[in-house]
């Protein structure tokens, strides 16, 4: 062959190779783009969407071999036997994908082929033993078949390492058992993390006794580890009136130094922090014009200081700015003692100390109106009895409504609070 011919063949070959690459690329694109588009459609469309059926049919036309497409297509069919046939094809195409096993199991259950359904659900669990979703579906299947022990075994596994599944399982069993905390304890994995999430779940639903019981099953090291979750539990328990349980957990994690039936920081030797994490210490509402709350080291009855409330033309008709929540026992007689001084209190209606039931804000007792001027420390008391549902009280400085304008000026000092059971 001449050199000219060889050169010509080489040039033709060099042109043919890129052309072949382009042709292959176009062919692959022609095949893959419809599949990608079909898969994208089903991933961005819920089966509950009004146009789900049309989207599924279009996706099927574009990517009939995609299991996800086939799954959505099946879920939008009205004929359950057709659904089964489609899902059987999907499982045949991807036998090791637990998602299609679950879908086939649900399809079999719909046509009352229970044994086949169970087989597919169990196969899904075998394929993904560490994943919560297959166990969730098998557990639900067993509940529907009234096989409670089998259901709880699978659902317990779903709570082990999956926070999102825990919430689903706990909500399911809460509804299934009509709010029975003991049933929730059965389904929670015995590990510390599932237990602390169960305690929080119960706290969110106002189950103070049950939440505290689960919390107490944790080791001290785990209580410290889950201190952040405990903080949220305390907020939930307090907000729902489970005061004693909230206080006990707060004490265990070092969030409060308060104890039941006792005024915390009674002589104001500790700072009045108004810390939101300690609901059982003195609380002071946000400062406002005409009112200040301070610790006074110059005027005190005992110790190093007292609490001073100064009124400088306060005009709000109702006043309830300094308060504390105390855990107490129901249907019990108490007396609250305190010492106060006043200076220049000027108003048609002067402040008082009130005791209210924290559970329902019922007024249990009140002092007389503070005197306008009391240069000496004066002991004042409130005797009261808690109601049958009262588990905590709120003691607060209060000025009743007195019309507008109702200017309040002057100062009051508090010291040496004491709560005594009579």
Overview of the molecule:
With 422 residues, the chain is α+β, with helices and mostly antiparallel strands. Helix content is 47%, strand content 19%. The protein contains 15 helices and 10 strands. A 5-stranded antiparallel β-sheet has the order 1-4-9-6-7. Strands 2-3-10-5-8 form a 5-stranded antiparallel β-sheet, with no helix packed on it. β6 and β7 form a beta hairpin. α2 (52-62) packs antiparallel against α3 and α11 packs parallel to α14 (227-239). The N and C termini lie far apart (123 Å). The relative contact order is 0.06.
Low-confidence stretches: 5-17, 20-31
Termini gap = 123 Å
Number of helices: 15
Q: Which H/E pattern describes the elements? A: HHHHHHHHHHHHHHHEEEEEEEEEE
Task: Give the helix/strand class.
Answer: alpha+beta
The average pLDDT score comes to 86
Strand order of the largest sheet: 1-4-9-6-7
Helix content: 40-55%
Work out the strand percent: 15-25%
């Amino acid at each position: 062959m001449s050199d000219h011919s060889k050169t010509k063949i080489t040039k033709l070959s060099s042109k043919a190779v890129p052309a072949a690459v382009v042709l292959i690329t176009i062919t692959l694109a022609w095949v893959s783009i419809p599949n990608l588009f079909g898969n994208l459609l089903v991933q961005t469309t819920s089966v509950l969407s009004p146009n789900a059926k049309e989207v599924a049919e279009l996706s099927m036309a574009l990517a009939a071999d995609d299991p996800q497409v086939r799954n959505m297509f099946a879920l939008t069919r009205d004929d359950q036997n057709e659904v089964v046939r489609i899902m059987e094809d999907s499982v045949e195409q991807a036998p090791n994908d637990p998602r299609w096993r679950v879908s086939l199991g649900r399809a079999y259950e719909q046509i009352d082929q229970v044994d086949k359904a169970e087989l597919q659900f169990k196969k899904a669990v075998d394929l993904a033993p560490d994943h919560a979703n297959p166990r969730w579906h098998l557990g639900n299947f067993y509940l529907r078949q009234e096989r409670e022990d089998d259901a709880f075994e699978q659902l317990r596994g779903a709570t082990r390492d999956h926070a999102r599944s825990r919430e689903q399982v706990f909500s399911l069993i809460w509804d299934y058992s009509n709010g029975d905390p003991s049933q929730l304890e059965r389904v929670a994995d015995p590990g510390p993390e599932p237990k602390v999430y169960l305690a929080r779940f119960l706290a969110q639903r106002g189950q103070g006794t049950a939440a505290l019981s689960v919390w107490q099953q944790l080791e001290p090291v785990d209580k410290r580890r889950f201190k952040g979750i405990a903080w949220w539990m305390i907020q939930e328990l307090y907000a729902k009136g489970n005061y004693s349980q909230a206080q006990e957990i707060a004490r265990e994690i070092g969030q409060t130094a308060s104890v039941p039936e006792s005024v915390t920081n009674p002589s104001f030797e500790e700072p009045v922090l108004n810390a939101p994490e300690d609901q059982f210490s003195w609380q002071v509402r946000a400062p406002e014009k005409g009112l200040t709350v301070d610790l006074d080291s110059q005027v005190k009855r005992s110790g190093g200081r007292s609490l001073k409330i100064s009124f400088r033309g306060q005009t709000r008709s109702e006043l309830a700015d300094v308060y504390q929540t105390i855990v107490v026992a129901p249907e019990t007689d108490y007396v609250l003692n305190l010492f106060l001084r006043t200076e220049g209190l000027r108003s048609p209606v002067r402040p008082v100390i009130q005791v209210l039931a924290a559970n329902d804000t019922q007024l249990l007792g009140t002092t007389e109106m503070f005197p306008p001027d009391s240069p000496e420390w004066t002991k004042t008391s409130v005797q009261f009895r808690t109601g049958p549902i009262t588990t905590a009280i709120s003691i607060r400085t209060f000025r009743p409504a007195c019309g507008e304008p109702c200017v309040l000026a002057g100062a009051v000092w508090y010291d040496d609070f004491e709560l005594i059971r009579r």
